[in-house]
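Researcher: Quick test of sequence recovery. Tokens follow.
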């Protein structure tokens, strides 16, 4: 069981806006449930790690996980790196996912990040992940499904605020797909796939699409 108090203590030097954002994020996104699906050991590469919240959750969940977080947003990355220097739990690097320059791993995480990438780039990123994976390795895609419709529309409104008005997340346009589309893409790459809904009790249509090589 992840100790939320221990988790938030990692961010004790962050400003109040960041702390508030993290608490809200943990309330509206099933990170703690999602952690239980990720293998307890191995090299895990988080593509689009932001401020490292889920990476630290993963490390607190199992010290046997080697975690590398990549992100393009320097502001969020600096916060993650600052915490890393204090805690020595994870590794964080700046990277533009569209350049397809990321390290090999046993697991690739794409947590609410693909919808900000053009459709062609999404395919390129997933293909690169598959190529780098060893046999038995995993790709985890956590996105917002397009049903039920009211949850999807609520998320679209919220993302519009976060991305275009407030600027918490970098991006200019949304490129959503349905869970069936994500599963089909992974299957065409050669993955065994599964789709698990994580939206019970949430106002967002959270869904996890897993592909195993």
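Model:
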């Amino acid at each position: 069981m992840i100790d939320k108090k221990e988790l938030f203590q990692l961010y004790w030097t962050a400003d109040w806006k960041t702390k508030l954002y993290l608490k809200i994020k943990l309330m509206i996104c099933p990170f703690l449930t999602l952690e239980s699906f990720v293998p307890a050991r191995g090299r895990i590469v988080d593509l689009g790690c932001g401020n490292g919240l889920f990476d630290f959750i993963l490390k607190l969940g199992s010290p046997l996980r080697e975690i590398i977080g990549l992100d393009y947003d320097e502001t969020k990355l600096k916060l993650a790196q600052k915490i890393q220097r204090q805690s020595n739990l994870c590794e964080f690097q700046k990277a533009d996912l569209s350049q397809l320059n990321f390290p090999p791993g046993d697991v690739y995480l794409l947590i609410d990040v693909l919808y900000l990438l053009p459709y062609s780039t999404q395919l390129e990123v997933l293909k690169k992940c598959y190529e780098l994976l060893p046999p038995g390795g995993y790709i985890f895609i956590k996105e917002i499904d397009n049903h039920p419709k009211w949850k999807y529309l609520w998320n679209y409104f919220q993302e519009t605020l976060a991305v275009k008005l407030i600027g918490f997340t970098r991006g200019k346009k949304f490129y959503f797909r349905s869970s069936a589309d994500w599963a089909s893409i992974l299957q065409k790459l050669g993955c065994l796939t599964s789709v698990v809904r994580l939206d019970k009790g949430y106002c967002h249509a959270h869904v996890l699409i897993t592909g195993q090589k």
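The chain has a mean pLDDT of 89.
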